[in-house]
Amino acid sequence: MRFLFTVQGEGRGHFTQALSLAAMLRSHGHEVVAVLVGKSDSREIPSFFMDKIGAPVAAFHSPNFTSFYKQKRPNIFMSVINNFSRPFIFRKSLLFIRQQIENYQPDKVINFYEMITGMAYGIYRFDKKMGVQMISVAHQYVLMNPNYKTTAEQDMKFYLLRMLSIITSNRAEKILALSFRDMPGSKEKRIVTVPPLLRSEVFETTPVEGDYIHGYMLNAGYFDEVKAWHDSHPDVPLRFFWDKKDTEEVTQVDDNFTLHRLNDKQFLQSMAGCMGYATTSGFESLCEALYYRKPVLMVPVHVEQEFNAYDAGLSGVGIAAKKFKLSKLIQFIPTYAPDTHFREWVHQAEDRFMKEICGDYNPTESR
Asked: Angle at Cα 196 formed by Cα 301 and Cα 125, nearest 5°?
């Protein structure tokens, strides 16, 4: 079968998920004909993705709510204005998606939580060129599963995220909800629970116990916060990664604090050898940390990551905080008790994905 991928271009998680699924599909004789990445001007497509995806990659403008930062957290008001004050740009993106599907004529489209793709399927619902079946893949779809229980307060908090999830999966043949844990899906809502999509390199790297804190910052606004903690605890080694543009590959703050541009191989090696991980709570890296059984301090930047942190906490991944108070992570390490079934769940990913994506699908049947 021929597959076309569309990928949300914020952070690193959706990229690594796409890499993993592409490798699985190719190992079963299928083809990824192209990858379309929805991104903002403030983000670059990571070099590790361009080097490894093995298919033509094209970028287009797509709405995002993490590109406007005031110091650290997103300025939601300014993000909304920026995203929806340029309808002409997004109209071009909608037409671009439609044209690429027509050009490549894939058997199926795999959408990694990309909003414009979902909008295109809704707007062009009666266009024969958009008759290609779409399968949506993301962790956020767990929130759409009626078997996933949340409190009334959380329902209000995650309302926008649920709405975004509905938009990105508009008219999807099937919705694959990446999950830390197995749980029933929903026939009525076309939701299937599946394991995380971890890259093969994760399984090839052996974790060891180190003496440093490994970290990831989604944006540079958190640097001052981490630096302030480091100044008070200079004896604790820190190795942080970020995707800041126009920086050196390695920024040496001092002998015990280094900042690295995002590099997939170095990132995994650093995680595998750390004593703990501090992160802005991307789903993919939380899964990697849980697989390596590394305790985590989660500092969500936006609502999507707040949900990641909440859900990860249910599997014992780590503790959440509003700031990079690394002392909390150090205090948490002795009490760390992760989900011991997670590795077994992850190892089921290939069989489950091939069944759901390439097997015969009947929406009236249970998973």
From this structure: 80
